[in-house]
Write a structure and sequence with these properties.
By secondary structure, the protein is α/β, with parallel strands linked by helices. The chain contains 16 helices and 24 strands. The chain starts with a helix and ends in an 8-residue tail after the last strand.
Length: 486
């Protein structure tokens, strides 16, 4: 695994591995033990331009390539991932502090999305539409947008880079990828190496490791990309959307969440506890779909809370490479401090800590808080860490109101003994996704993924990926002669 960090600590531009020419380095640390994994000199504005120009040059021939030939690249990438699964899992554990369970979960989904990309190359279809004009034929072609810029986050870097990069390439586009500076290998240069070894033509996929401190808005302002696919916080997403709109670009925004898992009075409580604990604490709670809030009908709140707290107390915190560890480190010290600050703020507002976890370096132990004031801003925001708010409610009407009382609308779940009651509840919640009798954290290759409100704009996966990374072109053919008024 160490060879990944030494070999891939470079920029990948126009098929060449080379150092950046910036004046400072991105240092890649293991968040568990602070070991220095790699040092990468940042890419400059000029190198971002070189990457986009390379993608633009390579894209035309790629779009004209037979889609059956294009898809063979993705078949080879999938085989490479399967062959190196253990190495990639070790990298995920080291670079972002993912546990072994989390690494396996991410790799499973990544392989599913690669399998879908194999088929996606053959999915674009044209249409012939009727015309009121005599002898006219209207052809509607679905074509690649050209070049796509992808900005990926640190929490599921391998998966969330691939789920934009692979479909965009499969549909005939060129791509420039900017991974998060905390995960430049798993979210960036590793993906470049896999596609390079799979035979993707040089220039089509470029990876620039850099930061806005170096390049400002150059990545999203550049004239070449027609679509920017961004996954990250709503604050940054708002800026990305604004710059894209000012530059006549389309943006696909997968942003934050403040999801709720709701336990109705007829729920299977033991099962609901398992779903809630997973939904909040998977990958230390650093998941946009995580259940920040667990809402429980007051009639079953005491029993649920007792079981929930007991299970949370069993979660092992520590070295993510240990198979027994459930909660590893958060990504960096700033995140650890922010999460600890949330707990302290809640307690200052009058909340009660049923479990009050401590913080050691980047290891943040779980906290379970109740009696948070209903008007607390903490209940409105996304908390990216192992802290959960238990909120009682009286009846479904109040539950729906509380669930919707947030600027976000990404995911959520409801537990009930009556499936149709759950579906009816889900329909009343303002989210892009909602799950009945399951957890809040789900992603599948052919189901539209995305949020409402501050949780994003647009969708990815399946047919919606076609909409994201292609456009339509109308070509009319006049078989006879048109009549003109002058």
């Amino acid at each position: 695994m160490s060879s990944y960090f030494s070999d891939l600590a470079q920029q990948y531009i126009d098929g060449e591995w080379r150092p950046g020419s910036g004046s400072w380095d991105v240092i890649d640390f293991n968040p568990y033990d602070d070991e220095k994994l790699a040092s990468i000199t940042v890419a400059t504005v000029d190198e971002v331009d070189q990457a986009y120009r390379a993608a633009e040059r390579a894209q035309k021939a790629w779009a004209d390539t037979n889609p059956y030939a294009r898809r063979s690249v993705f078949e080879r990438v999938l085989r490479l991932v399967e062959d190196r699964e253990q190495e990639i899992a070790d990298l995920i554990i080291a670079e972002l502090g993912g546990t072994r369970v989390k690494a396996g979960f991410e790799l499973h989904l990544a392989k599913e999305f690669l399998r879908e990309s194999v088929h996606l190359a053959l999915r674009p279809e044209g249409r012939i539409l009727p015309s009121p004009g005599e002898g006219k034929e209207n052809r509607v072609y679905r074509v690649p947008v050209g070049v796509v810029g992808v900005i990926s986050p640190f929490n599921f870097p391998f998966l969330l880079s691939l789920k934009s990069v692979a479909p965009a390439l499969a549909l005939g586009n060129g791509v420039v990828l900017k991974p998060h500076q905390n995960t430049p290998i798993a979210g960036g240069t590793l993906i470049a190496r896999l596609f390079e070894e799979a035979g993707l033509p040089a220039g089509l996929l470029n990876v620039v490791v850099t930061d806005i401190a170096e390049i400002g808005d150059a990545f999203i302002e550049h004239p070449v990309p027609k679509v920017i696919s961004f996954t990250g916080s709503d604050q940054v997403g708002r800026h990305v959307a604004t710059v894209c709109a000012a530059n006549f670009k389309r943006s696909v925004l997968e942003l934050g969440g403040n999801s709720a898992l709701v336990v109705l009075d007829d729920a299977d409580l033991d099962y609901a506890v398992d779903a809630a604990v997973f939904s909040r604490f998977v990958h230390q709670g650093q998941v946009c779909m995580a259940a920040n809030r667990v809402l429980v009908d007051r009639s079953v709140a005491d029993e649920f809370t007792e079981k929930f707290v007991a299970k949370v107390r069993t979660l092992k915190v520590g070295d993510p490479s240990d198979p027994e560890t459930v909660i590893g480190p958060v990504i960096n010290s700033a995140q650890a401090n922010a999460v600890s600050g949330v707990v302290e703020q809640a307690l200052a507002e009058g909340a009660t800590a049923l479990v009050h976890g401590g913080t050691t370096n980047n290891l943040v132990e779980p906290s379970v808080l109740t009696s948070v004031p209903a008007d607390s801003p903490l209940l409105q925001q996304e908390v990216f860490g192992p802290v959960v708010f238990l909120v009682p409610f009286d009846g479904e009407e109040e539950a729906v109101r509380i669930v919707n009382d947030t600027p976000y609308g990404l995911s959520g779940a409801v537990h009930t003994g009556n499936i149709e009651r759950g579906v009816s509840f889900a329909k009343r919640v303002d989210t892009g996704m909602f799950h009945v009798n399951d957890g809040t954290v789900h992603d599948e290759p052919i189901v539209p993924f995305g949020g409402e409100k501050h949780s994003g704009v647009g969708r990815l996966n399946g047919e919606t990926t076609l909409e994201a990374f292609t456009t339509v072109k109308w070509i009319s053919v006049q078989h006879g002669r048109s009549g003109f008024p002058f």
